[in-house]
Amino acid sequence: MPVQDFLVISQVCKSYSGHPAVQEVSLNVARGEVFSLLGPSGCGKTTLLRMVAGFERPDQGRILLGGQDITELPPEQRPVNTVFQNYALFPHLSVWENIAFGLRMARRGRAEIRAAVEKMLVLARLEDHARKRPGQLSGGQRQRVAIARALVNEPQVLLLDEPLAALDLKLRQHMLEELRGLHRQVGSTFIYVTHDQEEALSLSDRLAVMNAGRVEQVAVPEELYQAPANGFVAGFIGDANFLNAEVQEMLPGGFVRVQIEGMGRPAVQAAADWRTGAAVRVMVRPESLHLGLERPAASDRSNCFQAVVEEVSFLGGHERLRLRAGSLSLVVKRSRGAEGRQPGLSEPCWVRFAPEAGRVIEAVQPTCGAK
Ligand code: ATP
Known about the structure:
The protein is α+β, with helices and mostly antiparallel strands and 371 residues long. The protein has 2 domains: 3-235, 3-Layer(aba) Sandwich (Rossmann fold), CATH 3.40.50.300; 239-363, CATH 2.40.50.100. The chain contains 9 helices and 20 strands. The strands form 4 sheets. The protein has a 6-stranded mixed beta sheet, with helices on both faces. Bound molecules: adenosine-5'-triphosphate.
């Protein structure tokens, strides 16, 4: 069995009262991978996770784990544990007893349980809280107990359903680091459900972006950000400027020259061939647009245009600017340490971006754009 075929979700569908929640989803997850399901509320992430856990049965399709078809197996017979957003700890049991619970149910020996719980307490940095009850813990500590309680059973797959959603931003960032550390030490496969793109990008080896029950793209974080497969993924992952463009000519090396009102004729990347005259949408990330007061040298002018700064917002380490170039309105993210004197409010400026930083995302009319 190839390593990437550890968890195989094949053509899985699930509807509730005739409304599809998950539609023909196929995914392969590797052993030991941190794999995230990312998408807006209601896109089917939790339903898919619950089918892997065994809490829901697919209407169609199969789920295989380590080569075994587990589609019909009840949850308790799957080598899978779930961590929920609301912790679901036993309030009357101590941290120690909460962690030991699964092992007691499995009738493991006393010495084995003690050793496993002590080890988890250290891994989850809960040694000082072993005798406390959940009500005496902070949110982050409670979530660590929930994770420890799931991991102590040594599941082959740990399912995490928005486990950090109830925590504040600082604590979430801290818990993400802890999760990464735990994953390095235990090596189980993690499936992580979230609608928070930063969480998913920073934690995952690979991600699936879901929309309306379907998977839009599966990729490593950098690829999702740099080369989104379509407008939905581009808009969901990070900030983006979407520009209506007309294809002028294909260029060597996977580039295309396009006409964009207000911008002239820049070269941008294109994953497919496009016919001249096709109406397409081009994406440029706000941090890829660089501003200057001087007109760039002639050799550097193809992806360069004039604009005026209409708005500047201070956001700590960077500024967010709104520019106008003819009828075009653009967002620019400027680092506070940007080189040279930078244009201020109402000042005209020159804007440039590398051809690699622009990308044709999709046809404006999908049926007649692609060759
Ligand atoms: P969120 O991020 O808000 O948790 P999600 O992506 O996890 O959303 P799901 O919980 O999987 O989405 O829900 C997908 C769709 O299926 C939604 O339209 C939801 O209303 C519906 N759904 C989920 N569970 C049930 C259920 N038990 N009965 C009826 N409809 C359901």
